[in-house]
Automatic annotation (TrEMBL):
<dbReference type="GO" id="GO:0004072">
    <property type="term" value="F:aspartate kinase activity"/>
</dbReference>
<keyword id="KW-0418">Kinase</keyword>
<dbReference type="InterPro" id="IPR041740">
    <property type="entry name" value="AKii-LysC-BS"/>
</dbReference>
<dbReference type="InterPro" id="IPR045865">
    <property type="entry name" value="ACT-like_dom_sf"/>
</dbReference>
<dbReference type="GO" id="GO:0009089">
    <property type="term" value="P:lysine biosynthetic process via diaminopimelate"/>
</dbReference>
<dbReference type="InterPro" id="IPR018042">
    <property type="entry name" value="Aspartate_kinase_CS"/>
</dbReference>
<dbReference type="Pfam" id="PF00696">
    <property type="entry name" value="AA_kinase"/>
</dbReference>
<keyword id="KW-0808">Transferase</keyword>
<dbReference type="Pfam" id="PF22468">
    <property type="entry name" value="ACT_9"/>
</dbReference>
<comment type="pathway">
    <text>Amino-acid biosynthesis; L-threonine biosynthesis; L-threonine from L-aspartate: step 1/5.</text>
</comment>
<dbReference type="InterPro" id="IPR002912">
    <property type="entry name" value="ACT_dom"/>
</dbReference>
<keyword id="KW-0028">Amino-acid biosynthesis</keyword>
<keyword id="KW-0220">Diaminopimelate biosynthesis</keyword>
<dbReference type="GO" id="GO:0009090">
    <property type="term" value="P:homoserine biosynthetic process"/>
</dbReference>
<feature type="binding site">
    <location>
        <position position="47"/>
    </location>
    <ligand>
        <name>substrate</name>
    </ligand>
</feature>
<dbReference type="InterPro" id="IPR036393">
    <property type="entry name" value="AceGlu_kinase-like_sf"/>
</dbReference>
<feature type="binding site">
    <location>
        <begin position="174"/>
        <end position="175"/>
    </location>
    <ligand>
        <name>ATP</name>
    </ligand>
</feature>
Length: 427
């Protein structure tokens, strides 16, 4: 028998009719021979309404009370859903986050999961019930208080339960057919993506794509949970989000479940840096510059533009293969007047050092430690660029090895033994 975790978002359980519809779907899954665990969000806009209500009482609600208030939204939907399932002739039991063993830290409003021990949910399944769990909430062992995990956190509850229960599938039901190539509410011609890697989904979620809670994607990537994002309003296949086995780890007893995983430090000394100064601060200049660069088939990596200032000009810097630097300058110089920039500065070789790992975005401490390590090593930073799974900076090429070592040590990556290099210079 397979075990399926299904998560239904607020718009899927917005009113009594919707709750009945969702119950039907759950019962169908159960009757098809599966064990089913359901995670629910609060009905419709309940969470916003509760926030509003608190706002009418006080401008500064104590965070402990806020979490108790907000957690009640999910309690309503889980109990009503259990009733609707009973009405269809199957049995269901609902559980709050703390009953379901969602143990978090004590940070109200953005608690992180430390441990998941869903013993009661497992017992309920073994006894033949559908287990229903309230989304986005847990309990801190330290403070013994109810916590919530932040807006949209129910996705993360579902993924965490799927990982802890070794579920065969984790279905995230929402009000669109899956993950789209752009927000289908904005771009009518957006296409549904059938399958996407966890890495790409992570970048999309970090860049604002809202179908999935960022933390749920991180969690699923780390513990190898396959997600199926689909609509609760249709029977269509949705989007599969597939983790890469090389990124996944096993749940370790006693290790907090949500923490950044640093994979390693990469560096590159093959790039140069070109800075174009005094570029008119009007639309279209970056397009002119990068069209020229593209015509020259020059691959660029990091791009940085200064803040627009009162001077009405700006500086644009980018990195490019060192050997392409001369050519890029010639091409740009040939269009100096039409682009209207003042001058160029080319550094033929710079160092790029990058820290790679999952979960950086939700752990501001990672960048803090990264920049502190560089400071302590006396290394000045040229450009900075970040992504969900990477922070990169440009340094003087002479300082590159020192930067790599400093960051490596700062993140506890140093091993006790010396690595063997059998041959080659690493160039
Ligand atoms: N009800 C909470 C919210 O609206 C959690 C969730 O929906 O995932 O943010
Ligand atoms: Mg919601």
């Amino acid at each position: 028998m397979s075990l399926i975790v299904q998560k239904y978002g607020g718009s899927s359980v917005a009113d009594a009719e919707s709750i009945k519809r969702v119950a039907r779907r759950i019962v169908d899954t159960k009757r098809a021979g599966h064990q089913v665990v359901v995670v629910v969000s609060a009905m419709g806009d309940t969470t916003d309404d509760l926030l509003d209500l608190a706002g009418q009482i006080t401008a500064a609600p104590p965070s402990r009370e806020m979490d108790i208030l907000l957690s009640s939204g999910e309690r309503m939907s889980m109990a009503l859903l259990a009733m609707a399932i009973h009405e269809l002739g199957e049995s269901a039991q609902s559980f709050t986050g703390s009953q379901a063993g969602m143990i978090t830290d004590a940070i109200h409003g953005k608690a992180r999961i430390i441990e998941v021990s869903p013993l009661r949910v497992q017992e309920s399944l073994d006894a033949g019930h559908v287990g229903i769990v309230a989304g986005f909430q847990g309990m801190s062992r330290e403070s013994r208080d109810i916590t919530t995990m932040g807006r949209g956190g129910s996705d993360t509850t579902a993924v965490a339960l799927a990982a802890a229960l070794h579920a065969d599938a984790c279905e995230i039901y929402t009000d669109v057919d899956g993950v789209f190539t752009a927000d289908p509410r904005v771009v009518k011609t957006a296409r549904k993506i059938d399958e996407i890697s966890s890495d790409e989904m992570l970048e999309m979620a970090a860049a604002g794509t809202k179908v999935l809670h960022l933390r749920s994607v991180e969690y699923a990537r780390r513990f190898g949970v396959k997600l199926h994002v689909r609509s609760s309003f249709s029977e269509l296949e949705g989007t599969w989000v597939i983790p890469d086995p090389k990124d996944t780890v096993k749940i370790q007893e006693g290790e907090p479940l949500e923490q950044p995983i640093i994979s390693g430090v990469s560096h590159d000394a093959s790039e140069g840096k070109l800075t174009i100064t005094g570029v008119p601060d009007v639309p279209g200049k970056a397009a002119e510059i990068f069209n020229l660069i593209a015509e020259g088939a020059i691959n660029i990596d990091m791009i940085v533009q200064d803040v627009s200032m009162a001077t009405k000009t700006t500086n644009i810097s980018f990195t490019l293969p060192g050997e392409d630097g001369e050519r890029a300058q010639e091409m740009l110089n040939a269009h100096k007047d039409s682009i209207g920039f003042e001058s160029m500065d080319f550094v033929p070789q710079v160092g790029k050092v990058s820290l790679i790992g999952g979960g950086m975005r939700n752990h501001p401490g990672v960048s803090a430690r990264f920049f502190t390590a560089l400071r302590d090593a006396g290394i000045n930073i040229g450009l900075i660029s970040t992504s969900e799974i990477r922070v990169s900076v440009i340094t003087d090429v002479e300082l590159l090895d020192r930067a790599v070592a400093a960051i490596h040590t700062a993140f506890g990556l140093d091993s006790d033994e010396e690595a063997t290099v059998y041959a080659g210079t690493g160039r």
